C-alpha cells in the first residue's frame, strides 16, 4: 500500500473502491459525522478524520504506528475489484455495484458493534446515533480534537456496572435491559467475542442469539460488521423488498431470504447485501 506522511496524518495514494460518503452513510456504522469537508469518527479510542482528495484518502490525526489499525478497520487489504468480478454474473447486482462503487465493509470493534445493533432493533438511524452518542457521553472517556470533544465507546466493565434505570437515561427505552445483559455477559466472560470470531458462521450466530434482544437480523449485522462472517446476510424491510422484487418473486420469511442469498452469493453474501441495500434503499426510498 502506497502512503505518505502529512503534518498530522497519512495520505493513502491511488486507492479505489473507497468513497467515504458511501461507506459512512451506508447504514453499517453509527458514529461517523460529516464535518466540513470530511467525516470524523472514533477508531481505537482515537478521533480521526477521513477525507477524499481526488483518488487519494487523507486520514488526519494518525501516525504510521496506527496504520495496522487503519488498514484493518477500513478493510484496505481486500481486493474489492475481485469481489465485484465474482458478483457481476448477476445483472441487478452489477447495477448495484456500479451505484455503490465506493462501498466497503468496515471491521468495527466487536463490543461497540454488539451494543450498537442491539440499540438498532426497531429503531431509525438518527435515533440510533443519538442513543450511541448519549451512551458514549455518559460512560466513555472524553477526547479533544480540533477544539471539539468526542467520546470513546464505553467498555463492557463500565456498562456492566450500570443500572438499567441509568442506561435508560440515554433514551434507549426498553433496550436498556438488553444492553445491561449483553455488557454483563461480555464483562463476565460468558460471551467471548474473540472466540466467536474463530467459530464458523452458524455456531457464532447461535451464541449471539442467546443474548437478550438479539434476533436473526441483529446477529447477522454483528457478525458481518465486526466478526468477518461474510456469509451473513442481514435482512430488514429494504433487503426483503429488493430480494422479493428482483429475485424470489414471492413472500417468504426473512430467515429463508438469508438462506436463499447464501446459496446464490455464497461466501460473498455479506458484500452482496451491502450493495443491494444501498442501491435499493437510495433509489426507492430517497436515502438512508
Automatic annotation (TrEMBL):
Major enzyme class: lyase
Domain HhH-GPD: 119-281
Enzymatic reactions: 2'-deoxyribonucleotide-(2'-deoxyribose 5'-phosphate)-2'-deoxyribonucleotide-DNA = a 3'-end 2'-deoxyribonucleotide-(2,3-dehydro-2,3-deoxyribose 5'-phosphate)-DNA + a 5'-end 5'-phospho-2'-deoxyribonucleoside-DNA + H(+)
InterPro entries tied to this protein: DNA_glycosylase, HhH-GPD_domain, HhH_base_excis_C, HhH_motif, Hlx-hairpin-Hlx_DNA-bd_motif, OGG_N, Oxidative_DNA_repair_enzyme
Molecular function per GO: class I DNA-(apurinic or apyrimidinic site) endonuclease activity; damaged DNA binding; oxidized purine nucleobase lesion DNA N-glycosylase activity
PANTHER family for the chain: 8-OXOGUANINE DNA GLYCOSYLASE, N-GLYCOSYLASE_DNA LYASE
Translocase in keyword set: no
Keyword terms: DNA damage, DNA repair, Glycosidase, Hydrolase, Lyase, Multifunctional enzyme
Positions of the Helix-hairpin-helix DNA-binding motif class domain: 206-225
Keyword DNA repair assigned: yes
Pfam families in alphabetical order: HHH, HhH-GPD, OGG_N
EC number(s) recorded for this UniProt protein: 4.2.99.18
The organism of origin for this protein: Calorimonas adulescens
Highest taxon of the lineage: Bacteria
Protein name in the entry: DNA-(apurinic or apyrimidinic site) lyase
GO BP annotations, alphabetical order: base-excision repair; nucleotide-excision repair
